[in-house]
Amino acid sequence: MVEIRKPILVSRAVELVMQNAKLLATETVTLDAAYGRILAEPIIAKHDVPPFNRSPYDGFAVRAEDTVGASGENRTPFKVVEEIGAGHVATKQIEQGEAYRIMTGAELPAQADAVVMLEQTVEGEGTFTLRKPFVEGENISFQGEDAKEGEALIHKGALIHPGTIALLATFGYANVEVAKQPVVGLLSTGTELLNVDEALVPGKIRNSNGPMIIAQLERMGIGHQSYGMLVDDLDACTKTVERAIAETDMLITTGGVSVGDYDYLPAIYERLGAKVLFNKVAMRPGSVTTVAVLGDKLLFGLSGNPSACFTGFELFTRPAILRMMGAENPYMPYMKATLGEDFTKPNPFTRFVRAVWEMGEAGPVAAPAGFNKSSAVSSIARGNCIIVLPSGTRGFTKGMEVNILLLGAEQGVSKWAL
Amino acid sequence: MVEIRKPILVSRAVELVMQNAKLLATETVTLDAAYGRILAEPIIAKHDVPPFNRSPYDGFAVRAEDTVGASGENRTPFKVVEEIGAGHVATKQIEQGEAYRIMTGAELPAQADAVVMLEQTVEGEGTFTLRKPFVEGENISFQGEDAKEGEALIHKGALIHPGTIALLATFGYANVEVAKQPVVGLLSTGTELLNVDEALVPGKIRNSNGPMIIAQLERMGIGHQSYGMLVDDLDACTKTVERAIAETDMLITTGGVSVGDYDYLPAIYERLGAKVLFNKVAMRPGSVTTVAVLGDKLLFGLSGNPSACFTGFELFTRPAILRMMGAENPYMPYMKATLGEDFTKPNPFTRFVRAVWEMGEAGPVAAPAGFNKSSAVSSIARGNCIIVLPSGTRGFTKGMEVNILLLGAEQGVSKWAL
């Protein structure tokens, strides 16, 4: 009576999901709406940066030739003919022994070829003296030294973070071409589920997966369309799923993917003619995680257990969404850490343990974030990373080196390496 | 003529800012608006988790005593009297040799004390047989094993991330007490600044700091109130700053903090009677970063150079905002990394180098993200971390161990350790 499912490796499951993530269209947004989006065009330097030879200091713009021979015993005097504030340009010419007062960021006049810092002078009334010679080009930020006009500075597919915004602003990108964000449908299955504002009744629990996934999407800047909580009724479920798929770019369901009598998702996938990419992954928690495709839409059947649901989203759904937007770095970053506690449970499958990493004396140390069963919610609220414990061993002890996946990192990596 | 400023250490500057960050009030938000906020109350387990003894599998709930003696040669038969779906409770009693069909997540009936997984049975019509005995309590998720009613699970001051949302939902926190977010005023000084939609003209550049800081705030989920770009006119500037301070909880200005003739911020602070905490920090870029206090409001005078402005925000403004909200982990996380490139510039001050870290064979490797001057914008758009190079040495070479600060990390650390 029990369907036997063949587990596939996490890396293979990731690969299958990514192969089936279809690229969305692009759209134009204004710069002030661009933060957090994925660039759909490269950032090209529209002009040299700096756009002109610029003074990096407050001081005086001089002709280097006029400073020859200056010394402590033989201070060279200059007469100031004009003052150039940032944003202003010189209107006068200078001759031998003349100089401009110039402010940080101001354009160097054509006749001057060196900048003397205020601190290097003794000032008088409209005059100053120098005690050392300056060479041509000294203390100048040269036009184009930071970027040349036409240079491609940032690829398309990059995340637009605050630094990216600065670059876009510099080049006058008042509008930016970015990937459209998917419309994500969400529905939680299970007659045992109550809404957050309902009182507990025997046999029931509140739906924590729905709000959690909404927040996981929100963390990515992605909205959602909720299809509520389905009762365990196959016909009603099928209709709702069908409507949700029609109205969205991808669908996330929680629960209903196990092999129990009320686990309707497999039957719904079959009725709708969806192709199941996998329905068992060699991981704990979340081995029942199921992903199917209908047309060009991915259907994520995440486990009803909160930790499994959380992990399934981060491992599979998040990179798929990023891939749909053409992101170049869709995967969670990872690093090595020292295991901070024994974790002796046997691991027939790869185990993903919610954990807290901190910097220790010798490097990062990661310790499980408390009670660790797939049903546990308290540990989810503590972790800032996921420890990845490979399958095929008998357990892990404190001090061993493990890989950790960083949760909530702004920028990811281009390859799934674990 | 030039004011001599005494530089203070970065750690001391951080300390002064944090000491002057005043705690904001709290407010109640609905759960669906709570993501990214700072908890102003602890999360208390409102009930045991699980709230009842629960079946972790699809299978049968039995009395362990009835399974005594079962073996492959002597399979013990059971009669199924009732089926308990998740969210339902048993209505019938069982007697010797009887069992319930039970689904994952369903409440274990009082009379049963063990769960037999479907895979461990051979099913017939309303019956099944077992080939091994079960002990009392086998395969049961016990009431309260994840959390006990009344237990404080998460401190106030914690960031509400998706896992926290799951926990709040579990306990029926339809409303959550969170820290109010500060109203942050923003103004950019400098006559050299153009808006993003303006064409370049000689001597001018577009304002990149304003949009960048707005995005840095947005990354924290914090809005802003813009006071536009001030012209370099002391009276006009003073009035605008005064109004901005009156209307906001804190003020960020960019530019105007150097010692040039048009650097009005020092004069404005003096006119308004603001207490300057520091006006020179032993860091590059951003040594001119100035922070003042007026009443209980912090005034951040960030450098007009984009990289310096960016760094000043991340080092000082961000933790101050988090402290104002009572966040327990206001500082950027850091870790050790191997320097991926020579960085031979001398460092009279601590240097903060925008960089990219990646996982290498032997651990994280961080390399400067391109051209590195405080005016450079292209490197800002590439970095995912900041390399911290201590002062007092002659340069750093590839392969040396350095500390890096992680940019855009969701969760920070409680202490400034660098």
List keywords for this structure.
homodimer, 418 residues, alpha/beta, 6-stranded mixed sheet, 17% helix
Structure overview:
The structure is a homodimer of 418-residue chains. In chain A, a hairpin with a 2-residue loop joins strand 21 and strand 22. The two termini of chain A are 35 Å apart. In chain A, helix 1 packs across helix 6 and helix 3 runs parallel beside helix 6. The first copy, chain A, is 17% helix and 28% strand. The first copy, chain A, has 418 residues and is of the alpha/beta class. Chain A has helices at residues 10-19, 162-170, 209-219, 234-247, 265-272, 306-324, and strands at residues 26-30, 43-44, 59-62, 76-84, 98-102, 114-117, 121-123, 127-130, 152-154, 175-179, 184-189, 193-194, 205-206, 225-230, 250-254, 275-278, 283-284, 290-294, 297-302, 334-339, 350-360, 363-368, 385-389, 401-406. The model of chain A has no long low-confidence stretch (mean pLDDT 92). Chains A and B meet through helix 2, strand 13, helix 3, strand 20 and strand 21 of A and helix 2, strand 13, helix 3, strand 20 and strand 21 of B.
Number of strands of chain A: 24
Helix content of chain A: 10-25%
The most extensive interface, with participating residues per chain, is: A-B, 116 and 117 residues
Radius of gyration of chain A: 31 Å
Note the beta-strand portion of chain A.
Answer: 25-35%
Order of helices and strands of chain A: HEEEEEEEEEHEEEEHEHEHEEEEHEEEEE
Instruction: List low-pLDDT spans of chain A.
Output: none
- Summed over residues and divided by their number, the pLDDT of chain A gives a mean of 92
Tally of alpha and pi helices of chain A: 6
